[in-house]
Write a structure and sequence with these properties.
The complex is a heterodimer. Chain A is mainly beta. Chain A contains no helices and nine strands. Classes of the chains: A mainly beta, B mainly beta.
Chain lengths: 114, 116
């Protein structure tokens, strides 16, 4: 699976949009971009994933560049409960695809401030 | 959404004893389950992958005789830490993936193991 690079940490203002970048310059054509977050002492929570089109759900939006070498997770209105470590993970698609498992990197520690 | 239940959430045991952790998919059938461990201030490390009815596949460096994994049904996987020692103290997290949800892995809340 392709490796991802994320900022170690970032602060965000409560009520403002939080834009979390991720670089995955070696991504392959059949690899998806997944975002998870882990609030302190809990298991990771799925946020969103995409292949090449931008995606939106009730939690966030995922913007993938046209060359697919980077992406941005957008939390539209950050709240204090969004404080967590956010992981950007690249993984081969398809349930039976070889190597189809999530490998976690260091993630971005996001602190939402009042 | 898909729910993965993990039990117990916290366990303390004496050195040399064995501890079993259960992971259940509550509202979907999990064809594949994963076990991770996480040390303080570190990221999650995959320990093993199991498919229902077959032997688990362990990651390099993970002792299969130390960490016994059983995935006997489509909704239950167990991790048994055998002869636990203080260095096994960690946060253990299970994850499940099924046909539902477009190949998304869902995670349990984790089990904090403290070996005295």
């Amino acid at each position: 699976d392709a490796k991802t690079t994320q900022p170690t940490s970032m602060d965000c203002a409560e009520g403002r949009a939080a834009n979390l970048p991720c670089n995955h310059s070696t991504i392959s054509g059949n690899e998806y971009v997944y975002w998870y977050r882990q609030i302190h002492s809990q298991g990771p929570q799925y946020i969103i994933h995409g292949l090449k089109n931008n995606e939106t759900n009730e939690m966030a939006s995922l913007i993938i560049t046209e060359d697919r070498k980077s992406s941005t997770l957008i939390l539209p209105h950050a709240t204090l409960r969004d404080t967590a470590v956010y992981y950007c993970i690249v993984r081969v698609g398809g349930i039976k695809a070889a190597g189809n498992k999530l490998t976690f990197g260091g993630g971005t520690r996001v602190l939402v401030k009042p | 959404g898909a729910v993965v239940s993990q039990h117990p959430s916290w366990v303390i045991c004496k050195s040399g004893t064995s501890v079993k952790i259960e992971c259940r998919s509550l509202d979907f059938q999990a064809t594949t389950m994963f076990w991770y461990r996480q040390f303080p201030k570190q990221s999650l490390m995959l320990m093993a992958t199991s498919n229902e009815g077959s032997k688990a596949t362990y990651e390099q460096g993970v002792e299969k005789d130390k960490f016994l994994i059983n995935h006997a049904s489509l909704t239950l996987s167990t991790l048994t830490v055998t002869s636990a020692h203080p260095e096994d103290s960690s946060f253990y997290i299970c994850s499940a993936r099924g046909e539902v949800g477009k190949n998304i892995q869902y995670f349990g809340a984790g089990t904090r193991l403290s070996v005295l």
